[in-house]
């Protein structure tokens, strides 16, 4: 809350854009593994434009109306979901928050694919990541309080909301995958012909 008071919102949004731009490798690889080549091209275009013309990612010119290159909402956990790996049981990791056995892969994947983790020495890398979490939290203050304030059982509400959110994301990513578009179309045709019979 103190950070939110001291640092103006435009500056905090710029910091968020910068770290989001650094998350390009994980999103790009996830799109490729999901056979969403359109999404991979969009991510590559966003990264190039925002790095060169967005002052290293502080600005997001790729998302303006003329270009309309939106960030792909994907990660390695969703990639496993696209290939049929189930969500599993609900976990709340300290510092990382809601997760599952499948989505825990994101934590490991981020470690290897996220550039700030390679900053040396290790405590400098940890400091950069802590600052990123602080900045992102300052932009979301009030959301958690609103959710638990309206819930009879906050734990169950957050758990159910998280599971539904992840299932929705996996379904959306599967619809974009070239590997599953043909099979889903075939299933639809088969269901239609079966109904007609």
Task: Tell me what you see in this structure.
The protein has about 200 residues and is mainly α. It is about 65% helix and about 5% strand. Helix 2 crosses helix 7 (about 120-140). It starts with a helix and ends with a helix.
Please give the largest β-sheet. Answer: 2 strands, antiparallel
Tell me, rounded to a whole number, the average pLDDT: 88
DSSP strand (E) fraction?
under 5%
Counting DSSP E segments of at least 2 residues, the number of strands comes to 2
Roughly how many Å is the radius of gyration?
Answer: 19 Å
Number of helices: 10
Straight-line N-to-C gap: 63 Å
Contiguous low-pLDDT stretches (5 residues minimum) are 188-193
Helical coverage, percent range = 55-70%
